Amino acid sequence: MPTLATSVNGLSLPNPFIIGSGPPGTNLNVISKAFKEGWGAVIAKTVSLDASKVINVTPRYSKLLATSGEVIGWENIELISDRPFKIWAEEFKKCKDLHPQGVLIASIMEEYNKDAWIEIVKRCEASGVDGFELNFSCPHGLPERKMGAAMGQDPDILEEVCGWVKSVATKPFWAKMTPNITHIEDPSRAALRGGADGLSAINTIRSVVGVNLDTLRPEPTVEGYTTPGGYSCKAVKPIALRMVMEIATMIRQEFPGRSLSGLGGIESGKDAAEFILLGADTVQVCTGVMKFGYECVKPMCDELLGFMAQHKFETLADFKGKSLDYFTSHADLVKRQAERKAAQKAVAAAPQKKTVQADGEWSGDDFVKQSNDLAR
Ligand SMILES: Cc1cc2nc3c(=O)[nH]c(=O)nc-3n(C[C@H](O)[C@H](O)[C@H](O)COP(=O)(O)O)c2cc1C
């Protein structure tokens, strides 16, 4: 019988499905609901010491629908938690009293100020949390105060802040990376150099989800205006997978033993399997919970177990990073294809599907068919 139970940075999880920081972990009521439904761990909504500066607007979400009506993209301009730190500290404590086995991770964010980072870590630890996620990645609102993604885009600052946290934290901590950067390995490496036990990737992608063609106003529209926000949900999964692959490859080569929590568009056990195959130890779900409710963890676990049974994997470690070996350079793909074709020619004149090989072979009349023939 395969098992989903796993251990990461000393934390024992019944399964790898973690509530990603955001509305699904925004207060004690919803965190309790998550534990009751069987989530492997909860990362609470990001907190800071001074919530008085956090003022949200409505509407703050805007969805992108496929022609079928399915929600495939989700932009938000929501800030970190607007709830006072004192309330959070009390709720963290109550939560650990109510769910002693539940793995509770505090997501924290502060300005570039050593004392503030040290204070927030110490106060969260005093309230009993099991670990931390450092939010270096919120793409809107906070960067104006040099927080969130503004910090995550600067490897030197990231390393320094992780060093401050490392100097006081007795619990493991992960740095959550922004995808709004050209080479995600650079800040990731800096966070690990600074002492992070692991990384989480990705936060939302800076976006403008659309423009209303009646009012000519970009969305989500607040008093007639908007500001670029963070994009999440199914549509971001390919970008998240690519970044998880890049970070996992770097961890494998340079920081063996550090962990990686993958997220971005995960809605099923099969999605989770893909992230784990590309090197994630755990997976997080945020928008998926907003679409389907907390109960979705059960079918996700069942589907992941089904995948494991199909391949005779007993544990998550049996397939973690297994697909990383199949990435190579484009030049190597060309070489492999030439070798395969030459070998085939030598064996027999097997009929080959005629597809476009060189750019001069594209015809205007057959364009859609030719495009489809080139897809897997
Ligand atoms: C409405 C909303 C609020 C979010 N708030 C936070 C937050 O407070 N802290 C944080 O680290 N990430 C936050 N996120 C980002 C998610 O944790 C996650 O990184 C991102 O949405 C991609 O995963 P998903 O497609 O499963 O949502 C938020 C996402 C959404 C949709």
Q: Can you tell me the CATH topology of the largest domain?
A: TIM Barrel
CA-based shape = globular
At the fourth CATH level, what is the homologous superfamily of the largest domain?
A: Aldolase class I
Strand content range:
15-25%
Q: In total, how many domains does the architecture comprise?
A: 2
Account of the protein in words:
The chain is of the alpha/beta class. It has two domains: 6-326, TIM Barrel (Alpha-Beta Barrel); 330-373, no CATH class. It has helices at 28-37, 85-98, 114-126, 149-152, 155-168, 185-193, 237-254, 269-277, 287-292, 297-311, 330-347, 367-373; strands at residues 6-8, 11-13, 17-19, 41-43, 61-65, 71-76, 104-108, 131-135, 173-176, 198-201, 205-207, 229-232, 259-263, 282-285. The strands form three sheets. The chain has an eight-stranded parallel β-barrel with strand order 3-4-7-8-9-10-13-14, surrounded by eight helices. The chain has a four-stranded antiparallel β-sheet with strand order 5-6-12-11, with no helix packed on it. The protein has a two-stranded antiparallel ribbon with strand order 1-2. Helix 3 (114-126) packs across helix 5 (155-168). The two termini are 34 Å apart. Bound molecules: flavin mononucleotide (FMN).
